[in-house]
Design a protein that fits this description.
Blueprint (H helix, E strand, L loop, with lengths): L15 H14 L5 E4 L2 E4 L1 H9 L17 E3 L2 H4 L2 H12 L4 H15 L14 H7 L4 H13 L2 H8 L5 H8 L3 H13 L4 H35 L6 E6 L27 H5 L3 H4 E11 L4 H10 L3 E9 L13 E9 L14 E3 L10 H10 L5 E4 L8 E4 L9
Parallel strand pairs: 1-3, 4-5, 4-9, 6-8, 9-10
Antiparallel strand pairs: 1-2, 5-7, 6-7
Family: Belongs to the MT-A70-like family.
Keywords: Methyltransferase, S-adenosyl-L-methionine, Transferase
GO molecular function: methyltransferase activity
């Protein structure tokens, strides 16, 4: 057969019943669009060429037979323009490509631009972003497709090209060592190698992977707890803090009845910063620090001075609306910061970032947030600063703190 140009090979061939229909159409109606050649290779029309050979319309093999010349035209870059752009335009308008097919084509285009698999290309180099734009694909998907092409065994790549496996699933498998990839293929073969079999095995693999991650995370948290409890000086892996933040009312004549100072003593931010919380925190630990929307800047300053790096936050959505300068406050923030190597919750075990709970006594925080912390870190030593009540297994500190619960 005539060789196919590398640019043409970016796009998958038509196979199966679709090809049989094309061959039957060519046999009945003839070849209505010529095959396009560049440097003796088929630049456009591989499927038409194959269908014409199957129908007995074209006999050309290693080179164009003079008798078949009418079915071929030559692509002249000086006249016809960029051959790559030509191929992409033809195929994008002619064919209904799936998202994953576009990702794989773009990935092959990037790979080709770096000299693989054929160094004899006119392509001077195309970035991932450029390839994604030309194929109307997302960059993240193109990068996953590159992982498949560069790291997956050929059978996995073929499964993606045959639309039996998604690029995302194939990229996950591609990160495994080759023997493990082949083991996955064996499991799929046992299910019949259908698209449904691929999906079923991939789901099982993800479930197994998730279970392994959860087990490893739980083991790390338990080991860390043992080490922290064995320290000669008490150190805590979890610090839950609700500082007595100051608040300046809009009017000291009319607003002091709602100020925190009217309900409990408050401290300046500088005084809170200087508390030696870092001295009771374990080397690997996490802090959950309450802050108001207006006081986020001060809370982040405190967190940093205590030795923690901000990671994320939860939102307490209240069941009633309060006061405020720019808006009427209906939420508070529970900032999360870490130091050292503390495990995050396992995938699938994370709580939602917004938690709705009723308002209780002034400044008291809903119990559900302590339950969240216990669910995340059941074994680590815990202390609550400015605690209102004792919690089993926790130490407490603060003006209103009760005796620690057994």
């Amino acid at each position: 057969m005539l060789p196919f140009h590398p640019f043409a090979n970016l796009f998958p061939l038509i196979e199966g019943s679709a090809f049989d229909e094309l061959a039957a159409d060519v046999a009945e109606r003839g070849l209505r669009e010529p095959v396009v050649l560049l440097d003796g290779q088929i630049l456009d029309g591989r499927n038409r060429y194959r269908a014409s050979r199957a129908a007995g319309l074209i006999n050309s093999e290693d080179s164009v037979d003079p008798a078949d010349a009418r079915h071929f035209v030559r692509f002249i870059p000086a006249v016809d323009g960029d051959p790559l752009g030509y191929v992409i335009s033809k195929n994008m308008h002619r064919r209904q490509l799936t998202d994953d097919q576009r990702r794989m084509i773009a990935a092959r285009l990037v790979t080709m631009s770096k000299g693989r698999p054929d160094a004899n290309t006119a392509n001077g180099g195309i970035s991932r972003q450029q390839a994604a734009e030309q194929l109307s694909a997302d960059e993240a998907g193109v990068e996953r497709a590159r992982t498949v092409i560069n790291r997956a065994v050929p059978e996995i790549v073929a499964a993606v090209d045959d639309r039996k496996m998604s690029v995302r699933a194939a990229a996950e498998i591609a990160t495994l060592p080759v023997p493990e990839q082949k083991a996955v293929l064996a499991r799929i073969a046992a299910h019949g190698e259908t698209a449904q079999a691929f999906r079923a095995v991939i789901k099982d693999l993800r479930d197994e992977k998730t279970a392994e991650k959860k087990a490893r995370r739980a083991g790390r948290e338990a080991d860390l707890a043992v080490k922290q409890r064995a320290l000669p000086d008490r150190r805590y892996g979890v610090i839950y803090a609700d500082p007595e933040w100051p608040f300046e009312p809009y009017s000291r004549e009319t607003g002091m009845d709602r100020a925190p100072d009217n309900h409990y003593p408050t401290s300046s931010v500088n005084d809170i910063v200087l508390r030696p919380v870092g001295n009771i925190a374990a080397k690997d630990s996490v802090i959950f620090l309450w802050a108001t929307a207006a006081g986020v800047k001060a809370a982040l300053r405190v967190m940093e001075h205590w030795g923690f790096t901000y990671k994320t936050h939860f939102i307490w959505l209240k069941d009633r609306t309060g006061t405020g300068y720019w808006n009427r406050n209906k939420h508070e923030l529970l900032l999360v910061g870490t130091r050292g190597d503390i495990p995050a919750p396992a995938m699938g075990e994370q709580w939602p970032s917004v938690i709705e709970a009723p308002v209780g006594a002034h400044s008291a925080k809903p119990e559900i947030f302590a339950e969240l912390i216990e669910a995340y870190y059941p074994n680590l030593p815990k202390i609550e600063l400015n605690a209102r009540r004792a919690r089993p297994g926790w130490d407490v500190w603060g003006l209103e703190a009760p005796e620690a619960a057994a």
